[in-house]
């Protein structure tokens, strides 16, 4: 342990630290056994490759020989990539919250050799500033406690660990008044909305796509204004890359102007999905173009090994500063565009003083389709893109993650359906197949892949998000292969992750034994929680289940944890959406019939104009596909029609738009 042991790690984040003078170790049981023998505390540092403040702390402290000497003499040091080991990160972020500290990265936390946390924080500066103590002073204080006042640490652990275990293992609870909770929780979310700038009030601002999607499902004017304002401001602000496409992780200000410049695959997958849903409601060309540009960026810049998609781009440029790749001086714009410079500067708010560190983050105050998608402006953006491509790019984290790729697969499917671009569905299918080919070993799913190696057991996010993408692919294609994969993944989920005592799914499998505890997650973070997404997948697939077991399991999850929504609606928005799904439980079958009739095309067009998302829709173009659906087994004729099923009761075949519209209104599928 008396050396840096990160040399052979595949994680780009761990690789960044392999030459530090700190004696880093990857997480392993051997490390904790060594700590027990040496009677030393653990210093656990968790971050990720594209994290700006992780880089800052690394340069200030982990590359500093004097700081490294203090660490090496007093601690056993463990470095974890939170994207490779979200399970470890989850446990210790929860612990930090119980200590009264705000979570984030880098996470700096101190453990006993038994993995029990007793003190922590996030970024600590080299010298005391920002109201934070210097990292050296923290190290010396913790060292003094451990070696001279261990009883204080033991007392802290005695109080902390039982609470940590309790909040990490949420028990099911039945709610007697879900409708009331739903409405009150929805109103609470609206009270937190910034109706001037979009998103939640205050700064920093994160997109919170689970909240956006929950609001899109509603039909009242206040909800509509909330999500539309948010998507507009994100799409026009500096958080969006107007030259290359794609979204940064969050904005440090309340107007979405100044991003934290790292770009994450999961954010952009969720951005695509929300824009597609928003387009279905509002038909804004802005949303369509942002989807196209973001998918273009992903296809151009994010393709990695096994023909799946990489994790992220760094905020910092090698040898430079945060955001250098993305910002512009007025002189650069003048030199590049000459006669068109005034036109470009006016529309993208470029000035001599700049809007961030004397440079300009491009953003739009006054948007119109005619200006920003004119041939003139498209040409100017392309010029700037080609110029920017000559700059030194931020580093890319090349690892492939099962959960994030699964989110992208789902988003590509939804975008393909909304915008009628079949190549996106094809890309989703190719990505899905490449993921299964390389990440699935029998029934065991791996979490990450890099440098020819698949690593780490899959978490609930991996299984759950892949399950949901299987259900969406089956919905869009009716290819039985996706149903077969769905059942295989579900079987593993039920045997390895299901909590037989308290309901819901644990975040880690029953075979993962080297963690402090086994957490369960039902709140949304930057990504929707997997318990909810699994329930949504089960509900979606209930049309193919004659026993209704899928629906009952989805209903169990929804009912078991709905009271948690009351405790924090902001972090449980996906449960509100799940409640809508379960309550509506509507499937629509569009049957082509034997002839390629105009009526079938009219039915398809009709549903393309419907703004509701409270149903699952299947296009059935052959008599063989009728056999897939238990609800359709009594059909006497294969004729062009629509059948609407709600709560397992189905209409007669509807053979006109008028009859269809009347049926949907009567069942409150559309309002």
Write structural notes for this entry:
This protein is α+β, with helices and mostly antiparallel strands and 671 residues long. The protein has four domains: 158 residues, 3-Layer(aba) Sandwich (Glutaredoxin), CATH 3.40.30.10; 331 residues, Glycosyltransferase; 63 residues, no CATH class; 82 residues, 3-Layer(aba) Sandwich (Glutaredoxin). Helix content is 49%, strand content 11%. It is built from 27 helices and 17 strands. Strand 12 and strand 13 form a beta hairpin.
Calculate the mean pLDDT score and round it.
93
CATH architecture of the largest domain: Alpha/alpha barrel
Number of helices: 27
Instruction: Estimate the global geometry from the Cα principal axes.
Output: globular
Helix content: 40-55%
Quick take:
The protein has 671 residues and is of the alpha+beta class.
Quick tags:
671 residues; alpha+beta; Glutaredoxin; Glycosyltransferase; 4 domains; six-stranded antiparallel β-sheet; five-stranded mixed β-sheet; 17 strands; 11% strand
Itemize the secondary structure elements and their pairings.
Elements: H1 12-15, E1 24-25, H2 29-38, E2 42-47, H3 52-62, H4 65-74, E3 76-81, H5 86-98, E4 107-111, E5 117-121, H6 135-148, H7 150-168, H8 178-192, H9 209-216, H10 221-236, E6 250-251, E7 259-260, E8 263-264, H11 265-282, H12 285-301, E9 310-313, H13 330-337, H14 341-348, H15 369-372, H16 375-388, E10 396-401, H17 402-419, H18 422-439, E11 440-441, E12 444-450, E13 453-457, H19 460-477, H20 480-496, H21 530-541, H22 549-561, H23 564-567, H24 573-584, E14 586-591, H25 598-609, E15 616-620, H26 623-626, E16 641-646, E17 649-650, H27 657-666
Parallel strand pairs: 1-3, 2-3, 14-15
Antiparallel strand pairs: 2-4, 4-5, 6-7, 8-9, 9-10, 10-12, 11-12, 12-13, 14-16, 16-17
Helix pairs in contact: 4-6, 5-7, 9-10, 9-11, 9-24, 11-12, 11-17, 13-14, 17-18, 17-19, 18-19, 19-20, 19-21, 21-22, 21-24, 22-24
